[in-house]
Amino acid sequence: MPRGTHLSQHEQGQIQALRLNNWTIRRIAAHLSRSRNVVATFLRNLGLYGKKKRPGRPSKLTSTARRALLREAHKGHLCSSELVKTLSLPVTPSTVRGILRATPTIQYSKMVPAPMMLPRHKIAREQWCREKVTWTVSDWMNVVWSDEKKFNLDGPDGFGYYWHDLRTDKRMFSKRQQGGDSVMVWGAFSGTKKCELAVLNGKQDAIKYIDTLESYLLPFVDQEMGPSWVFMQDGASIHRGRRTFQWFDEEEIPLLEWPAKSPDLNPIDNLWGILARTVYAHQRQFKDVDELLEVIMEAWDEVSEECLEMLVRSMQKRCFECVVAKGGPTKY
């Protein structure tokens, strides 16, 4: 027999009034054309009527199948449709996604990119971090961190997320081929001090790199650094050329030995990420290089000393996590 409708607020008021006048349940039910059972149920639970949540349709997944699903999902190898197929579950992939979203210990996440490492890279990284894990914050404050960064007119990608009002049309994001024109910059910082940002024109080689260091690095260290500073650069070919190392020797620039495949150990990589989020906030796109360059410079100037200090202070933890990972990639 189908379930009847709930009593309306008006009917509930009538039942209470008639009951106060000593009407019987049979008489009230006949008067309202309702069953005696619904009237009696209402009078037994005056404060709770209509508030009890119905259990709904029973789940097709047994407790055993649910545990198997969560156990397999925690391994992180299969998508929802593959989980359904592999475990022969009697539910749809959308149901599986709903179950996983409601599980507090698992989250659908994008893989973090990391450079491809050979065993020799991991060994070198672990050895370097073991040597540096005892460095103090003061030691790390004496390092001048440097790197290049490319910015294009359309931003890093077109996957911008936003809260969409379903009553309006969806926002669109269109990219030019190869992201439009681009700007390459070189930057450096040490402790809480930033070097002036250098704009790199054309294809870079060792000679142009040396020109950049002469124009930007040397004035920075002369003005901001003490006698015990050390320069960090990654393993790009123009950084490792014979002419480049000859210039380092001539200028007596102390170099920090740097392990290959280690962007996660370089805090300036995180600084570039902070800068890119500011430059491309709200999926901003630029009409020309001059406009992009102006925003980049403003964003660089706005980077706070607190932000720089936080990045430097993370170095001891970076080294520790790299040692724990036996030279493998870290979350940074």
Secondary-structure blueprint:
Blueprint: H1 9-20, H2 25-32, H3 36-44, H4 63-73, H5 80-87, H6 93-101, H7 119-132, H8 137-141, E1 143-152, E2 182-190, E3 193-194, E4 198-200, H9 206-224, E5 230-232, H10 242-251, H11 267-279, H12 289-302, H13 305-313, H14 315-324
Parallel strand pairs: 1-5
Antiparallel strand pairs: 1-2, 2-3, 2-4
Helix pairs in contact: 2-3, 5-6, 7-14, 11-12
Report what the structure shows.
Pfam families: DDE_3, HTH_Tnp_Tc3_1. It comes from Chondrus crispus. This is Tc1-like transposase DDE domain-containing protein. GO terms for molecular function: DNA binding. The chain is an alpha+beta fold and 332 residues long. The chain folds into three domains: 55 residues, Orthogonal Bundle (Arc Repressor Mutant, subunit A); 39 residues; 206 residues, Nucleotidyltransferase, domain 5. It has 14 helices and five strands. Strands 1, 2, 3, 4 and 5 form a five-stranded mixed beta sheet that branches. Helix 5 crosses helix 6 and helix 7 crosses helix 14. It is elongated. The two termini are 62 Å apart. The mean pLDDT is 87.
- Parts with pLDDT < 50 across at least 5 consecutive residues: none
What radius of gyration results from the CA coordinates?
33 Å
Name of the top-level CATH class of the largest domain: Alpha Beta
Overall shape: elongated
**Could you tell me the strand content as a percent range?**
5-15%
CATH architecture of the largest domain: 2-Layer Sandwich
Number of distinct helices: 14
Question: Quick one: biggest sheet?
Answer: 5 strands, mixed
Going by helix content, strand content and strand pairing, the class is alpha+beta
Protein name: Tc1-like transposase DDE domain-containing protein
GO molecular function, one term: DNA binding
Domain Tc1-like transposase DDE: 143-292
Domain Tc3 transposase DNA binding: 3-50
